[in-house]
Amino acid sequence: MEQPQTSRPRGRTLALVLGILLSLGISITPANAADNVAYLSIERFTLGQGYVLEPVEVPVTSGLTAAQMLAQTLTSEGIQYTNIGSVASNFYLVALKDDAGSATADIPDYITERIEDYWDEDVEGRASPDWLGQGDYFFMSGWMWVANNEMGQVGMSDYEVQAGDVVRLMFSVTDYGSDLGVEGAWSPNLITQANKDALTKAVAAINSAADKAAQLAQSGMQDAYDNAIAVLSDIESSQAGVDAALAQLTSQSPEPGDPGSGTPEPELPGTPPSSDDVMSLLERVAAYENNALTVGGGPAFGAEWVVMGLARGGFLSEADKALYLESLEQHLVETDGVLSTNRYTEYSRVILAVTALGVDARNVAGYDLTAPLGCQSKVTLQGINGAVWALLALDTAQYPVATCVDSSDQTTRSSLIADILSRELPGGGWALSGSGEDPDITGMALQALAPYKDQPDVAAAIDRALSTLSDWQLPDGGFRAAGFGPFVGDPSAESAAQVLVALNGLGIPVDDARFVKNGLIVYDALAAYRVDLNNGQTAFSHNAGGPANGMSTEQGLYALVSAYRELVGQSHLYDMTDVSLVSPTTPGSPTGPGNTVAVNTGGYAVAASPSALLAELSLLLLASGAVGLGVARRRRVETSAV
């Protein structure tokens, strides 16, 4: 991420002053609760440049802090930012990416006079035209935050957001926020700004409504809305002017349940697809993937997601199974069984593929692919991805956990579950990194935890995550990925695919009321990314209306397989106990019913007796999973870096 540079060192004093003041621990008065949402806006009114982010509604989850609220919203809107501290502690917004830098600032006279007459200084410009933050225009400038019309006097990390709160990020040009004119400033206010909370809420409700365009199309509504934005954006608006704008806007707003209302009563029910509908689409996608494999010379090592998806759907020929296994075994022999020394999701991914083919992952070309998963610290080198996919891989066929040479580092199913639970976001759900909105990783974590949903701590985490996913769901039934690089903030086919597989794995109907928005369900959102080709084949795009995308199609394929298996009552996508496992007939592979498999484990001790499987059988009730593993995420990063 590009880092903005301050124009002069004195700008850094703001962060120091804030750090001292924020340690005072003074509280802010919570607002009255309202519909379990809070309101957020980001304002540059002191520059005469309106909003960076117009008011929006933000769902309030238990433990949500102002820092999390801001960070999640900035990420979902694709707005880059820099900060000191962390979302968890001592968070302070230093600067954010802003496209108004080339526009001339229209700074009110009371601010310029304060700087020029009192401080005997000149008003300057921005250090970087694409960023707005600390030290821009004047050395006492920076981002301040206000909750319920009162200056934030604790850190944003320490303020727990309540339903009904109005949180506003305001750019202060001088005197550390005294130019903003709100209660609780640290110096005498230069003006008194009108209380705009009620009008901010009214505008946020319109901005966040699924039918915003329909509302604004109502007679007189657009004019009332435009006037409200103009009054809000003027830092010197009178209270009478604000109240009049609110009265005009609310007089035009339809009552709940009326045409154009943002809260239609009742919510339209979702319509689940039939198994025939899913199979029709699935056949077209499978044809596309099989054709791609043929063009590439057949399935080979590296194509695990496609191989797994086709195999679980019954679309992979015996000849193609043999081609993939031949390629994999050749690779294992060439590398002496080492797929990676720092990315253990490589082993998990291959375990998923070979198990789907009916091959025992403990003996492929004489190598036990489950053995590297025996040491917890190795598995979790990649963070939550490692634990999620190791658990999914081991549970596919109820594989016993290999023995780690260092007994203090022994992987167990319980330790993998504990690792996943320990990474839960404060508001529920999970992220690959940071605390941004991440439906992909949340879906994957739910897939791994699904077989253990009867455990109280797991059940509680699942419930919180489902609530969070419901809040994150978009009006079209889909989800906005956290992503990386150019993918930041994008709704995507992959996000819909991961959530769909998670719901299947948990046994939650696809038309469950929590996951219906405007009559649309997650399956509808995924299907909207389909790219129908002239040859009767179908792929998926990453973004709506985009071209066919390889990763999107891989994940769309196995999500469709997951949905179909759920509809017809088959075992879940990653519950492969319906497959009879054999060891490949590779010359020299030590196999035999009832015998311990003595294989090359690359330095890992392993007890692979088939009887060991029975010891853990009673602990498992396997469920589904999701694609894209850590590899899908990593591939997305690598693609954006090209």
General description of the model:
This protein is 38% helix and 8% strand. By secondary structure, the protein is of the alpha+beta class. Helix 8 packs antiparallel against helix 19 (550-567), helix 9 packs parallel to helix 11 and helix 13 packs antiparallel against helix 14. It has helices at 13-21, 66-76, 109-118, 197-207, 212-216, 221-233, 239-252, 275-295, 304-313, 318-335, 345-356, 376-379, 384-396, 413-422, 439-449, 456-472, 493-506, 522-527, 550-567, 612-617, 629-641, and strands at residues 37-43, 51-59, 81-84, 92-97, 131-133, 142-147, 150-151, 166-172, 530-532, 538-540. It has a 5-stranded mixed beta sheet, sandwiched between helices. It is built from 21 helices and 10 strands.
Helix run count: 21
What integer is the average pLDDT?
A: 82
Strand order of the largest sheet: 2-1-8-6-7
Specify the overall morphology: elongated
**What integer value in Å does the Rg equal?**
28 Å
Number of strands: 10
The helix content, as a percent range, equals: 25-40%
How would the blueprint of this fold be written?
Elements: H1 13-21, E1 37-43, E2 51-59, H2 66-76, E3 81-84, E4 92-97, H3 109-118, E5 131-133, E6 142-147, E7 150-151, E8 166-172, H4 197-207, H5 212-216, H6 221-233, H7 239-252, H8 275-295, H9 304-313, H10 318-335, H11 345-356, H12 376-379, H13 384-396, H14 413-422, H15 439-449, H16 456-472, H17 493-506, H18 522-527, E9 530-532, E10 538-540, H19 550-567, H20 612-617, H21 629-641
Parallel strand pairs: 1-8
Antiparallel strand pairs: 1-2, 3-4, 4-5, 6-7, 6-8, 9-10
